[in-house]
Design a protein that fits this description.
Blueprint (H helix, E strand, L loop, with lengths): L2 H19 L3 E6 L7 E11 L9 E9 L10 E4 L7 H6 L3 H7 L5 E4 L14 E6 L8 H21 L9 H15 L4 E6 L1 H12 L4 E7 L11 H15 L3 H6 L3 H14 L2 E6 L5 E6 L1 H10 L4 H15 L4 H10 L5 E4 L1 H10 L3 H11 L38 E6 L7 H7 L6 E7 L10 H11 L8 E3 L11
Parallel strand pairs: 4-5, 4-7, 7-8, 8-12, 12-13, 13-14
Antiparallel strand pairs: 1-2, 2-3, 3-5, 6-11, 9-10
Helix pairs in contact: 5-6, 9-10, 9-11
């Protein structure tokens, strides 16, 4: 079948799907954060919460469909949010709204809420555990890990008692939801468009339902055995960050050796934790005992994009100088006093199920001792791996996909969450994959440049000669982002 015939068939299927969906969707005014409301269709369908249980309850999976703006639409394009725990409809309301609208030139765009998120939340309860909540307790890494592990075990029991079939909240079940969405839309195939954990889900779909997929656009790829990133790769990211900082004279003078600065501050805090007072929302002050593991957790949260790393570097530089103002400012924004460990079912379950292979665990164990952020980049994984007995999907699930499905991968060189080398490894078995290196971009790179949009559209049009390299501007590393 020629490409032209396939496009004609896709358009015919799309037209039929619209007729069938009329009774299943509601016309809505979709309001993004920028206030530019557009007409869209909100729909839903039912799936078993746990397909392995023939008596499982049915849950609702929701989405918003933005209709194509072309007379010759291709297959529906399903957006897969990151996290796990992100919402497709929530993402569409944010900074990527413009790109959602642009993608309509290729076909209907589906802002898909994965099970346990957004319109597919099904009122899943958060679990407020009996662990944590003492901000003055000194804890070793092992004690931090044990406390979270105990909280996860407790929360698993809580969710089951609340009637949640937590066994159904795995990436593999979400793949089957995509398959059911495709059938609900009346399409022979769908295209996938995702980022971060959404790429993890897309790669799993390539393994489980390859014939149902047309083409795939991914950014910041997380491979099927990459739920846990390797500490040595995080250290390599910091070396790339240093190279970028060195291109700016003032930043190079302020931060001549980021890694050494971090290690020296960690050593000081390890020897003598800091007791600080942090303003609370009610106007009161609360005391915190800031330890080395707290700084490593802060650092892990602040390296996703280069726009945030100036705050990270300022945090360590001021602490080195004995000044806690940046630390207190960050804690005021993000830390509430004496909060117990509170977990959401979907992200907790998804990460536990995807798990980690024994080989990767061994690498992690060797590297975390000397890693700049230790074992905290994906905390509480892998520390909580195996907390729910029999829940891990196993090494067969973690096998990287192979095949010739067209795949576009966008990789930021200053992405502190998923790394250049790992992304290349995750797609190595895909013979029709094309990786574009986006120099100076971070994890959330879709809106970093119009050139990123251009290459996506060219890929969706099946054009040849796609670029392999895009360069975006660096932020001023001496300016705080807040």
């Amino acid at each position: 079948m020629t490409k032209l015939m396939k496009m004609a068939l896709g358009a015919a299927v799309s037209a039929l799907a619209l007729t069938g969906l009329a009774s299943a969707e509601e016309l809505i005014s979709f309001e993004p954060n920028n206030g530019e409301a557009v007409e869209a269709y909100q729909g839903s369908f039912l799936v078993p919460e746990n397909r392995a249980n023939p008596d499982s309850r049915m849950i609702e999976i929701g989405y918003v469909r933005f209709p194509a703006t072309t007379d010759t639409p291709g297959n529906p394009i399903v957006y897969l949010a990151g996290g796990p725990g992100g919402s497709g409809t929530g993402t569409a309301r944010g900074r990527r709204f413009e790109l959602f609208m642009q993608m309509r030139q290729h076909g209907d765009v589906i802002a898909f809420d994965q099970r346990g998120t957004g319109l597919s939340g099904n009122n899943l309860p958060r679990c407020v555990s009996s662990h944590g909540g003492d901000d003055l307790a000194f804890q070793s890494d092992a004690e931090v890990a044990a406390e979270y592990r105990a909280a996860i075990i407790e929360c698993g029991e809580f969710w089951r008692a609340e009637g949640v079939e937590i066994e159904g909240y795995t990436t593999r079940e979400s793949v089957q939801d995509i398959s059911d969405l495709r059938g609900h839309l009346g399409a022979d195939q769908v295209s996938l468009w995702g980022i971060s954990y959404g790429s993890h889900l897309a790669l799993a779909a390539l393994n489980d339902i390859p014939d149902e997929l047309d083409r795939i656009v991914l950014a910041s790829v997380e491979g099927l055995d990459q739920t846990v990133k390797l500490p040595a790769r995080t250290d390599a990211y910091f070396a790339r960050l240093q190279d970028a900082v060195n291109t700016q004279e003032a930043a190079r003078a302020a931060y001549p050796d980021i890694a050494q600065l971090m290690r020296e501050v960690h050593a000081r805090i390890e020897a003598e934790p800091l007791r600080v007072e942090v303003p609370q929302r009610d106007g009161s002050m609360a005391e915190f005992l800031v330890q080395r593991h707290h700084l490593q957790q802060f650092a892990s949260m602040m390296i996703s994009d280069p726009q945030n790393t100036s705050a990270l570097m300022a945090l360590y530089a001021t602490l080195y100088a004995g000044d806690t103002r940046v630390l207190v400012g960050l804690m005021t924004r993000f830390q509430r006093a004496n909060q117990p460990i509170t977990l959401r079912p979907m992200p907790t379950a998804m990460d536990l199920a995807s798990g980690i292979s024994s080989e990767r665990q061994a690498e992690f164990d060797t590297q975390e001792v000397n890693g700049l952020v230790g074992g905290y980049l994906n905390f509480p994984m892998p520390q909580a791996s195996g907390a729910w007995e029999g829940f891990d999907l196993g090494d067969e699930f973690r096998t990287d996909p192979v095949g010739d499905t067209p795949v576009l991968v966008l990789t930021g060189t200053l992405d502190g969450r998923t790394y250049v080398e790992g992304q290349a490894e995750a797609i190595a078995g895909l013979s029709n994959a094309h990786q574009v290196i986006v120099e100076n971009a971070g994890h959330n790179l879709y809106m970093s440049s119009s050139e990123v949009h251009d290459v996506i559209h060219a890929f969706m049009r099946d054009e040849e000669g796609l670029t392999s390299h895009i360069t975006v501007n660096l932020p001023d590393f001496t300016e705080l982002p807040f």
